[in-house]
Design a protein that fits this description.
repeat, elongated, Potassium Channel Kv1.1, Chain A, Methylamine Dehydrogenase, Chain H
Length: about 525
């Protein structure tokens, strides 16, 4: 249901389990913990379980998913985490549960004892319905349906908004200048908190030594302060990094402020900004901004679906928004953030979230609704006649002449034939170069010119001194002229090493004669 393939923590889960995931969150100091929800509304956790943050009742790490029984059926609508880590969720019923690290009372239960299992956060919230939660390093804030904000936990810089720097052991309403105002969006940096009102005003409080509150100074604030520099600008979303803030306007512009040592403000330099600065997005309308309090990475998505990233990207400082090939801001954090955690709860809802390409990819080799199977080397591959007819002339002719529900294939291996059928569903191939030779043979046989080109590209990327002659032989056999020329040049450029391989010793006599002749014409044997 949800593509979590870019997060390595999920790599060991079997495909049938991955297909059931509807929501997921990856967190922890090394992206080494994860919680996910299935389509059956069961909740599972896996990872190192630091401070009991997996909510399993113990502190044992687990490489295999274990179910969090108390959360099953709760319907999670919001999830956030700290660096302890502690984890906080809001359910569809408006309840708040928290567990994990509690050294600063960030679980809101009035103690500083770590919580090994999810516990209801009830003080001052029992009659409230919470819709969104956000965590800083060791503090938590929650937004209710009435637009009120409650905060608790670590308060050394005023991030709880209580007017003091004493830690807050239980939820307390953030009032002061937010009294009688309606908050619609919240976010937390490591030690600060941000809120957006229904009228587009933005308020910040807590740590401000990097200017992350956007107030034009570097003084900490113990109560919410309106960002005056955004007067007349209607903000609809804020996102906080470790010590920087991004704000999205209703017109699709993005402002940034705070720390900038990695270029995370997207301004083209590395100078901190204590006031909101407009980022140049080349006239692209932005519909989402993304940041996470654990990193210095920034991302945004345009109205046309393009994804931009900047800031700390795998150790590099990217000072301007950089256009990526990603389709979601989540991918930026999976591939380029340090640690590679999720910036919000990954979630899919309803039945219309998949693109056509994603739907086809999911149904490949799935027996549930297939109407045809191929039997290759004693193994079954499940497919759909209509798709095969649309995608391949060979199958259009074949399937118009037969009503068989099982077709046996003898001239190709299971690995190669499955890769071919998967290509028809996905437009991609995923094979090592040696196996791509077999697929090249198949592509030639079925006259699939694009597949033939993809195979050649795969083989080119994987050529080595050991396999160069084998690949050259295949290129000659399947009349792949471009590939043949590529392999030949590689062999000539690495002639000494190539001629010492077993493949060269076993080379076909005619091919060897042609190779030596052609290599001579290229001056390969001149002193």
């Amino acid at each position: 249901m949800l593509d979590v393939g870019k997060w390595p923590l999920f790599a060991l889960l079997p495909p049938e389990e991955l297909r059931l995931i509807r929501q997921a969150c990856v967190f922890g100091s090394a992206a080494n913990e994860a919680i996910y929800v299935t389509v059956n509304d069961e909740v599972f956790a896996l990872g190192t379980n630091c401070s009991g943050c997996l909510g399993l009742g113990d502190t044992q790490s687990t490489i295999e998913p274990r179910r969090i029984d108390i959360l099953c059926g709760k319907k999670i609508v919001s999830l956030s985490y700290g660096t302890g880590p502690h984890v906080v969720i809001a359910t569809a019923d408006g309840e708040v549960y928290a567990w994990g690290h509690n050294g600063y009372s960030q679980l809101g239960n009035g103690t500083t004892n770590h919580g090994l299992t999810p516990a209801l956060v009830s003080t001052n919230l029992i009659s409230k319905r919470v819709t969104e939660v956000a965590c800083g390093s060791h503090h938590t804030i929650a937004l209710t349906t009435e637009g009120e904000v409650y905060a608790w936990g670590y308060n050394n810089s005023g991030q709880v908004g209580s007017g003091s720097t004493a830690n807050q052991p239980t939820p307390r309403r953030v009032s002061s200048c937010l009294q009688n105002k309606v908050v619609v969006n919240i976010a937390c940096g490591q030690l600060c908190s941000m809120a957006v009102l229904d009228n587009g005003e933005t308020y910040g409080w807590g740590y401000n030594c990097n200017g992350q509150l956007g107030l034009g100074n570097n003084g900490n604030q113990q109560t919410p302060c309106r960002i005056a520099a955004l007067q007349g600008i209607n903000i609809v979303q804020v996102a906080c990094g470790y010590a920087h803030t991004l704000a999205l306007t209703d017109e699709g512009f993005v402002y940034s402020w705070g720390a900038n040592s990695y270029g995370q403000l997207g301004t083209g330099n590395k100078s901190n900004q204590a006031v909101p600065t407009l980022i140049n997005m080349d006239k692209e309308r932005i519909v989402e901004v993304a940041a996470c309090h654990t990193s210095h990475t920034s991302a945004a998505k345009t109205q046309s679906g393009q994804v931009l990233m900047w800031g700390q990207c795998r150790g590099q400082a990217v000072a301007y928004p950089h256009l990526t090939h990603f389709t979601s801001t989540d991918d930026v954090f999976a591939c380029f953030a340090t640690p590679a955690v999720t910036w919000h709860l990954l979630s899919v809802d309803g039945d219309d979230y998949l693109t056509v390409a994603q739907s086809l990819k999911r149904e490949f080799d799935s027996p549930e609704i297939s109407d045809l199977k191929f039997l290759v080397d004693g193994k079954c591959i499940y497919v759909h006649k209509a798709l095969l007819k649309i995608r391949c002339e060979h199958f259009r002719a074949l399937l118009n002449e037969t009503d068989e529900e099982t077709i046996e294939i003898h001239q190709f291996s299971y690995l190669v034939y499955r890769a071919f059928l998967e290509y028809l569903y996905t437009d991609t191939i995923n094979l090592p170069p040696e196996d791509a030779i077999g697929l090249l043979d198949l592509a030639t046989y079925y006259r699939e010119s694009r597949l033939k080109r993809l195979c050649q590209e795969t083989i080119k990327r994987g050529i080595t001194e050991e396999n160069a002659i084998t690949l050259l032989s295949a290129a000659v056999k399947y009349e792949a002229r471009d590939l043949e020329e590529f392999c030949f040049k590689f062999c000539v450029n690495h002639l000494t090493a190539v001629t010492q391989t077993q493949a060269f010793a076993d080379m076909d006599h005619d091919l060897l004669k042609n190779f030596i002749s052609k290599a001579s014409r290229h001056g390969a044997f001149k002193n």
